[in-house]
Amino acid sequence: MNEQALKSLFAEVLGLPIDRIGDDLRYDEVAEWDSIAHMALIAALDETFGLTIARDDISRMLSFAEIKGILAQNYGVSIGPDASNR
Amino acid sequence: MLPGERLSRIAEYRQRKMTGLLVELDPMRPEHTDAVLALRNSERALFNLAQYEPLKPEQHDAWYRGYLARNDDVAWMIATLDGQIIGTIALYAIDPTGRTAEKGRQVVDEQVALRGPYALESELMTLKFAFDILEIERVLVTIRPENVKVISMHLRQGFVPSGQRELRSTLYNEYALHRDDFKPQKLENILQHWRRRDERASA
């Protein structure tokens, strides 16, 4: 998956325009990233990548950048560069 | 359903535990006092409930005596299926004739709120109790305007703004959900996913 596809997944789950999704998007700064959205997001990531993300990771995945980092570090999921930025 | 039957069901469910996919709603009892105080006296709960002094045991005991004397209120402890108490929730101001009620007194332990959809399931169970078991037509919630994430959660459940109200000298936004607008399937899919995760983990 590339970064644009991950942004699309975030935008759909959180109900935000895709141009608001980026590394600086943080749970504690976005009203729409509420606990229901967080659970829906984890469910979507589980299903998209065939994972069962650990609960300790779930409560640390509190920004777009942290989610990319934890997916790469703990689950070997690499998010490719955004084609539109190449 | 006649108003008298609605009152009978309230009395029945004040004694009866409800079990969901991930949590149980256990009717509040005196032995829950310590857990209630720990939850209600967190900094976040004190702010959101506009409670300016920590709740004392004798205040809770007095409230509980009043609760037992009423028949328009069902208060639950939220517990995980392994029995860990993680929060409180209630359906109150139940009008058996006008078929309205309020959902609230919801406090979920911050340490577990982001570890699973426990708050979500407790809300859906409370709403199903209102709409399906009591056949209530409209459920209201009041939320402090600053509590933007809880507002967002309620908009996702189909609540719509319905005014403002002052409670304990604090202005609250009011939101309403009509029975016909309660469509929990998409949110229940999230719960099903988490149940399957738990089953995989314990297999």
- Estimated helix fraction of chain A: 40-55%
Oligomer: heterodimer
**Outline of chain B:** globular
Number of helices of chain A: 4
Explained architecture:
- The complex is a heterodimer of chains A (86) and B (203).
- By secondary structure, chain A is mainly alpha-helical.
- In chain A, 50% of the residues lie in helices and 0% in strands.
- Chain A contains 4 helices and no strands.
- Chain A has helices at residues 3-14, 35-49, 55-58, 64-75.
- In chain A, helix 1 runs antiparallel to helix 2 (35-49).
- The longest helix of chain A is centred in the middle third of the chain and has 15 residues, at 35-49.
- The model of chain A has no long low-confidence stretch (mean pLDDT 90).
- Chain B is of the alpha+beta class.
- Chain B is 42% helix and 28% strand.
- Chain B contains 8 helices and 8 strands; from the N terminus they run H-E-E-H-H-H-E-E-E-H-H-E-H-E-E-H.
- In chain B, strands 1-2-3-4-5-6-8-7 form an 8-stranded mixed sheet, sandwiched between helices.
- The mean pLDDT of chain B is 94.
- Chains A and B meet through helix 2 of A and helix 7 and helix 8 of B.
List the helices and strands and how they pair.
The complex is a heterodimer of chains A (86) and B (203).
Chain A: H1 3-14, H2 35-49, H3 55-58, H4 64-75
Chain B: H1 3-13, E1 18-19, E2 23-27, H2 33-40, H3 43-48, H4 57-69, E3 74-80, E4 85-95, E5 100-108, H5 110-113, H6 118-133, E6 138-143, H7 148-156, E7 160-167, E8 170-178, H8 185-202
